[in-house]
UniProtKB/TrEMBL annotation:
It is a multi-pass membrane protein. This is Endoplasmic reticulum transmembrane protein. It comes from Sphagnum jensenii. It comes from the Eukaryota. The chain crosses the membrane at residues 6-24, 45-63, 94-116. InterPro entries: BAP29/BAP31 (IPR008417). Keywords: Endoplasmic reticulum, ER-Golgi transport, Membrane, Protein transport, Transmembrane, Transmembrane helix, Transport.
Length: 130
C-alpha cells in the first residue's frame, strides 16, 4: 500500500517542480523549452486524476470501516493504533487534494503561458507590417 502513496508523492513532486520552474521570474531564455516540457508532461501527469480519486475513495472506505475505539473497551495500544490510522488517513487525504490542486494549477498556468506566447507572436507579426 505504501508504493501507491509513494507514486502519488512522486507525481505531486514532479508537478510542483514543473510549476515552480514555470513561474520563476527571469526565465526568458528558457521560456519556450519550459513551456514545451510542461505541455508534454501534462498528458502523462493526467493519470494522477483517476489515481488520486481512487485513493480518495480508499481513504473514505477505510474511514467508514474503521473499528470504533471508545471508552474502556480499548487498551492504550489500540487507542494509539486508532489515532495513528486516523492521522495517516488525514495526511494521505491532504496529499491527494494537493496532487489534484497542483495538476489543475499546472494545467491553467501552462494554458496561460501558451496563450501569452501566441499573443506575443501575433504582436511580433503585426509590428513589421505597420
Amino acid at each position: 500500500m505504501a508504493l501507491e502513496w509513494a507514486a502519488l508523492g512522486a507525481m505531486t513532486t514532479a508537478e510542483a517542480i514543473i510549476l515552480i520552474l514555470l513561474t520563476l521570474p527571469g526565465r526568458q531564455g528558457l521560456q519556450k523549452g519550459l513551456i514545451a516540457v510542461a505541455r508534454t508532461s501534462l498528458q502523462p501527469l493526467l493519470a494522477v486524476v483517476p489515481f488520486a480519486l481512487f485513493l480518495l475513495l480508499e481513504i473514505y472506505w477505510k474511514y467508514e470501516h474503521l473499528p470504533e475505539c471508545k471508552g474502556s473497551t480499548c487498551n492504550v495500544a489500540e487507542q494509539d493504533r486508532h489515532s495513528k490510522s486516523v492521522f495517516k488517513s488525514q495526511r494521505n487525504g491532504i496529499l491527494v487534494l494537493g496532487a489534484l490542486l497542483f495538476y489543475w494549477v499546472l494545467y491553467r498556468v501552462t494554458a496561460m503561458l501558451v496563450s501569452l506566447e501566441r499573443i506575443s507572436n501575433q504582436l511580433k507579426n503585426l509590428k513589421p507590417s505597420e
